[in-house]
Design a protein that fits this description.
- The chain is α+β, with helices and mostly antiparallel strands and 506 residues long.
- The protein has helices at 67-73, 84-89, 103-117, 119-124, 126-146, 154-171, 189-204, 222-251, 259-266, 271-302, 308-311, 361-373, 406-410, 453-470, and strands at 2-4, 24-27, 30-38, 59-61, 79-80, 152-153, 177-180, 185-188, 313-314, 324-326, 332-334, 345-346, 379-384, 389-391, 394-396, 400-405, 471-475, 485-486, 491-492, 497-502.
- Helix 10 crosses helix 12 (361-373).
- 43% of the residues are buried.
- Bound molecules: protoporphyrin IX containing FE.
- Its main location: membrane.
- Heme binds at residue 450.
């Protein structure tokens, strides 16, 4: 297999700063285009006989790199490297996703998995997820009944319910308003959403040009700083108010099963760490699941033939192939690998639930193909090589920054036939091996693999199946080519407008 190398050759001298962007990795069925940007410094890099080539656009064969080798390397490349904006917004790495790999990261990742995102923790929020999906369906029905000719805006409905789930899971309740000392007034749920989610996603992509020229970091960049620090202060004020409100609930003796109550009981964190971790769960749960589901519904609305009939085909319960497994990368897997059966069961009148998911191969294929074509996290947050290591056969020195370009990998013509087309059938028919299902690397890999992959699968797959069971989906005319994205997590630039036709099940 091949992957691409981009960038320019370069050395780093006291005066000249030339970045080296390197390569990509193929990992036993996993492909990752890895752009490695050598850190600018004042000392020239050591001579590296096997340094990655630096010619722009050079193709190299990387098939020798095995999955095991890549996973083994994660101990050397699991430290985060943040932009200035992210350093400010994450309070210098006080979160699971942005902390350096070490004792703090291990502890807080364990916390988030045991409290809310791991397999058994997810069971505690099953009712909340079901409520969320039922509420969305009721709203769709109501909107269609009110005016069947007006297209509805998918995101408006999904966003509200997802944020409700996110609040219940992280704070213990669906907060409708909160008094913020710093603002001197109550703020609404929408304002909470804007301060903790929307503004943060916008700020996360703020670029400070000094990130690229560290030796000029003394030059002021006031407008950047004002924007980022103001948004950060608002977010922190709102989070403190939300946590204060919930602490009052706990004092009243109303303990809840949620992340905040869990962290308070652990009693190992500073107030700042606690605030940041609760915010992390709030934003992570409220964002990418919406992105992935909206893209899936866009593609299904564009391809009516791939809706209910295919999605609800299931394989027999005794077929172990589709039992969920935990794979060695820590990523939740549903095993693919068999063709759709000749006489499949069709869910028919039976409402799809999470229990059905392992037996709905086409639905899983829709999910994974959507993650490939519309990577919700197109670039894996930068990592930092903290010890000399070998990657994809190349010597990579400590101090190298690494960005995995998932979008680039997933649109690579050498890896995917007609990559610009959305074709779930790539993931059915027994053509792929187990590891290939995660060839998209949508959830990263290794020790830093996504903590929320199981939750996303539960919500997105059940929602997609229920949505197409209940309604026929059709795009608004002229929306077929609206595939542009915006923000850090590949939001659809043009929110999905759809016409829904009830299938007469309710
Ligand atoms: C479609 C939805 C999602 C996608 C595509 C996604 C993707 C990713 C990716 C690519 C990473 C970085 C992995 C790496 O560096 O190798 C990551 C990390 C993470 N994600 Fe997700 N994610 C999704 C949803 C979620 C949700 C819903 C949550 C929580 C509610 C979540 C929590 C996290 C956390 C805590 C980390 C940091 C893990 C660590 O550093 O150890 N993610 N995710």
């Amino acid at each position: 297999m091949e992957a691409f190398v981009s960038g320019g050759a370069g050395g780093v001298g006291a005066a000249a700063v030339v970045g080296v962007f390197v390569a990509a990795a193929v990992v036993g069925g996993f492909v990752a285009a890895v752009a490695l940007a050598e850190r600018a410094g004042v000392i020239a890099p050591r001579k590296r006989p096997n340094a990655p080539p630096g010619q722009p656009g050079l193709n190299i064969s990387l098939s020798s790199l095995k999955l095991k080798a890549m996973v083994a390397k994660f101990s050397s490349i699991s430290t985060r490297k943040l932009s200035k904006a992210l350093t400010v917004l994450t309070r210098d790495k006080s979160m699971v996703a942005t902390s350096d790999y070490g004792d703090f990261h291990k502890m807080v990742k364990r916390y988030v998995m045991s409290s809310t995102l791991g397999t058994s923790a997810q069971k505690k929020f099953r009712d909340t997820r079901d409520m969320m999906i039922n509420n969305m369906l009721s709203t769709f029905h109501k909107l269609v009944k009110d005016d069947p000719h007006v297209p509805l805006i998918f995101r408006d409905v999904f966003k509200d319910e997802l944020f409700r789930l996110s609040m219940i899971q992280s704070l213990g309740e669906d907060v409708s308003s909160v008094y913020v000392d710093e603002f001197g007034r109550d703020i609404s749920k929408e304002e909470i959403y804007n301060a903790t989610v929307t503004d943060m996603m916008m700020c996360a992509i703020e670029v400070d040009w000094r990130d690229f020229f560290s030796y000029l970091s003394w030059v002021p960049n006031k407008s950047f700083e004002t924007r980022v620090f103001t948004a950060e202060a608002r977010r922190t004020a709102v989070m403190r108010a939300l946590i204060k409100q919930q602490k009052e609930r706990i004092v009243r003796g109303e303990a809840k099963i949620c992340y905040l109550d869990f962290l308070l009981a652990e009693n190992t964190l500073t107030d700042e760490q606690l605030t940041m971790l609760v915010w992390e769960e709030l934003i992570e749960a409220a964002d990418t699941t919406l992105v992935a589901t909206e893209w899936a519904m866009y593609e299904l609305a564009k391809n009516p033939d791939k809706q209910a009939r295919n999605i609800c085909y299931s394989v027999p319960a005794h077929s172990w192939h589709y039992q969920p497994k935990r794979f060695l990368l820590g990523v939740f897997l549903v095993m693919p690998g068999t063709a759709l059966p000749r006489n499949p069961e069709v869910c028919g009148d039976e409402t799809v639930t999470e229990e059905h998911l392992p037996r709905l191969p086409y639905l899983n294929a829709v999910f994974h193909e959507t993650l490939r074509r519309h990577s919700p996290v197109p670039l894996i947050p930068p990592r930092f090589v903290h010890e000399d290591t070998k990657l994809a056969g190349y010597d990579v020195p400590a101090g190298t920054e690494m960005v995995i370009n998932l979008y680039g990998c997933n649109m690579n013509k050498k890896e995917w036939e007609s990559p610009e087309e959305w074709v779930p059938e790539r993931f059915t028919g027994g053509r792929l091996e187990v590891a290939d299902m995660y060839k998209t690397m949508a959830f990263g890999a290794g020790r830093r693999a996504c903590a929320g992959s199981l939750q996303v699968m539960h919500i997105a797959c059940t929602a997609i199946a229920r949505f197409v069971q209940e309604f026929g989906w059709r795009l608004t005319e002229g929306d077929e080519e609206k595939v542009d994205t915006v923000q850090f997590t590949a939001y659809k630039l043009h929110p999905l407008h759809v016409h829904l036709t009830p299938r007469g099940r309710m």
